[in-house]
Specification:
Blueprint: H1 4-28, E1 62-68, H2 73-88, E2 93-99, H3 109-120, H4 125-132, H5 143-149, H6 155-163, H7 168-181, E3 188-191, E4 194-197, H8 202-213
Parallel strand pairs: 1-2
Antiparallel strand pairs: 1-3, 3-4
Helix pairs in contact: 2-8, 3-4, 3-6, 5-6
GO molecular function: isomerase activity; oxidoreductase activity
InterPro entries: Thioredoxin-like_fold, Thioredoxin-like_sf, Thioredoxin_domain
Domain Thioredoxin: 20-215
Length: 219
């Protein structure tokens, strides 16, 4: 009987830890429920009209639109997988990125999105964005140093852009678009109109790309 109470306490603590872990995971990314999830977007081509690709060239048969949050760990995990699939199918696919910072749970996501767009004004969007997925936001961010190491030529201009929130309009528009479309979490991909929500493996992504190329998804 002496060991019963410590065992009960241990059991309760383990259960609490599991509950907290699940709650955090749901906050970071939650899969849309079957009844509310958007599965296809009919007018998906309008999402890329006049938009500059993050990877690839316009006119590719497979168009991937990524709704992402730089502070989202699942987005960070998805990035190398998406890069691998793109490297293998670069002649057939193009990737566009929409900023969808989940500001209620990610304190630095909105500023990171603004910064990436400021870097993009000097042609360093891709390099800067790649760095954002690698940093530890909990330790703080030296935006100017990050810009310099990402190839931003005029760091002072970049800093002014970020301080004055000159790219807020485009980030706000993209976030609003995601909400209007019914996108409920990050990462979410729209591949030739088909919505793929959540973390995807290289194999899953490649299958989705090949299906789209074969016109198995909505076009």
């Amino acid at each position: 009987m002496k060991n019963v109470f410590p065992n009960i306490v241990t059991g309760v603590l383990v259960i609490c830890a599991i509950v907290v872990t699940v709650a955090v995971a749901k906050q970071t990314f939650f899969h849309p429920s079957a009844s509310h999830a958007v599965k296809n977007i009919a007018d998906w081509k309008s999402l890329v009209a006049g938009k500059t690709p993050a990877m690839g060239q316009t006119g590719a048969p497979v168009v991937v639109v990524e709704f992402s949050d730089y502070q989202c760990p699942f987005c960070r995990a998805l990035e190398p997988n998406l890069q691998k699939v793109y490297d293998k199918h670069r002649d057939d696919m193009v990737v566009y990125r929409y900023d969808f910072p989940l500001t209620k749970i990610h304190d630095h996501a909105y500023e990171a999105a603004l910064a990436s767009r400021c870097a993009g004004e000097q042609g360093a969007y891709r390099a800067f964005s790649s760095q954002l997925f690698k940093i530890d936001f909990s330790k703080g961010v030296d935006w100017s140093s990050l810009a310099q190491t990402s190839g931003v030529k005029d760091v002072q201009r970049f800093a002014s852009c970020l301080d004055n929130r000159q790219t807020a309009k485009i980030v706000d528009q993209e976030k609003s678009k995601a909400v209007d479309l019914g996108i409920q979490g990050t990462p979410t991909l729209v591949i030739n109109g088909r919505v793929v929500a959540g973390m995807e493996s290289v194999e899953q992504l490649e299958k989705a790309v090949l299906d789209a190329k074969s016109n198995k998804t909505s076009a």
